[in-house]
Amino acid sequence: MSSKGTVLVTGARGTVGNYVASLAEAAGWRVIASDISDRGVRVPMRGEVRVADLRHEDSLPRLVEGCDAVIHTAAELDVTKAAAALSAINTEAVASLYEAASAAGVKRFVHLSTAALYERRDGPIDEDTPLAPEGPYGLSKLGAEVFLRGLDPERKPHWTVLRAAPIYGRRGRHFAASLLAVGPIIRLTTPVVPRPAGGPEGTMVHAEDVARASLFVLEHPDAVGRAFDVSDGDVLGLGERIGVTFDAYGLRSISTGKTPEAFFELLSRLLRTRNLAGGLDTAAALAWRTVVARHRLKPALRPRFDREVLDLVGRPLIVRAERLRSLGWEPRFPRFESGFAEVLRWYQAERWVPRYS
Length: 357
Hints:
The protein has about 350 residues and is of the alpha/beta class.
């Protein structure tokens, strides 16, 4: 029996959940790894895998049975889904899971949210920035936070919310997939890719650092009943960030100079029109299929021009993590350049993306 107790990790085959399960076990927790399927979920050495669909309330009492804590990373991340589908996972399932955990005597509940909830502004944002999400995805994530904040402060399990900057990491299939695809798609047409510069500034965060932050707040008494931002703090313009991905691949590139900010704003507005965004999305999918065929890759990624990507194209998102740092947390990957290179090696080893000599 672990000295720290038993922790349930939902979304255990996901980008963050996979890291949480491994790190929790290494830290001395007995881990219950859960997802909607056991496919791709590593069986903990001192725990077990419990398959559960969080939308089915009758499966939740068994899921949380014997647990001392919950780290909830499971979510519907496909922002193209209907509002009802997003709400069912990102709002209603969170409330149901919390209620089941409360009935089972669970003591702590860590919920992974998103910095996309914040009102967007030119400068840095932090936990005091007003929440003003746009679209069904953001509203569904806000709904879960509203539920948690509305609970009696004395009620258990005590909750903590983590609002993560855009996440990249092993297994990522959303914004990370788009970053991974840009260089190889451009490389289809030219041996020397144009290197952009400028664009809206933002921060990101490695999935392992989000997992580390989840365990950190789980065990920190001053984290109870509070929300914390998670970010690497490495502020880069969109053009520079794309350039970093070119370097990680080893692609030859040539600078095109700094692109005016107005271009990115105009591009974002244009991409929000259904016909243009849909056309570019289709074109990207076709181009990626060509990359997959040419390099004999697994068809595991599907780059998209979804709302999350469009928001990052047109507007800054500089997320601070000073509140979390003040408690003693520090990212393992404070630089996007080193973190992305580490992640890219995994994608290449899995043959999800190409290698270049």
